[in-house]
User: What shape does this take?
Amino acid sequence: MLELDNVSKTVDDQALLKRVSARVEAGELIGVLGPTGSGKTSLLRVIMGLDNIDGGEVRYQGTTLAKRGRQLVAPHSRGFSMVFESPQLLPFATVTTNILVGRRLGDAGAKERLSFVMDLVGLREVRDRVAHTLSGGEQQRVALARSLFVEPKLLLLDEPFAALDRTWRETFVPRLRAYLEERGTAAILVTHDREEALAFGHRIFLVRAGELVRTGSAAEIYGRPRDEWEARLLGECNVLSGDVARKTFAAHLQSEAVMIRPENIVLTSDDTELGNATLVDASFRGPHWTVMARTDDGVELLVRVVGEMPLQSGARVRLGLRRPDYAVELERREERERLEEFERLGEGEK
Assistant: This one.
């Protein structure tokens, strides 16, 4: 089990991490999401031991790995492995040599393990090529294979799929997840791709301006965001004022702001007085249609429609919810942050 206890990191008076506290259980897979510069990579680097921390502690299975300004366990002694966004290969060495990086194949099961990870990441056919002749995506797969070969206790992944084409990535991420789950290996994936994070993680960490602002299951965080920032970070959404939401969808809503995902709106043709919107545009996206509808109050809403789309622009439609609880009442972030700060101050006085 990995524990971060009030971990802080500052560089040139800029706070990269602010009192981050979190736990990663044995075998747990974590997806980390946040804007550029929010501290995601810094989080991995302090866990790996590549950067010192300015406050708090990093612990693994009860052993303190790092505390303020000190590495108590060296990075190479932690049993962790990290895949960087840049592959960092030996350019004139073969794929096989890069995966082994000085390790010998004499260990029990090493040859079988090498063969397995090559198949897992799709490198068998290029195993004897030198690294600098590979494409960027192939080089990144070598870096992944190198980290998997050593069978780490904890796998740290910093944007490892960015150079891979989307089709290959969509099939590989589930395979990697299944492999890690089968072995009981914990992993933390930092990514800008929300679909990637949701597909990979048992839990999601949301990071903003150096703070860990939310943790929870992928379904929970996607379906029940607390504020507009969380809602938009996790995917397309409609954020409505409380008045518009009450008039269009549900009179029981109390909040000043309401979030509804496009796939949770039901759109039906209705030329009667019950129609409450006009279809403005419909674009085909492959698995679904993305529809823009404008309510009679002038509010534009995104709607996701699976299957045929027989309606045309200008058609009168009626909007409804698939379930009443799909209209998620949002908090005002500034107000919630003030309450959380009061709670932290109260804990400090105990």
Notes: The chain has a mean pLDDT of 89.
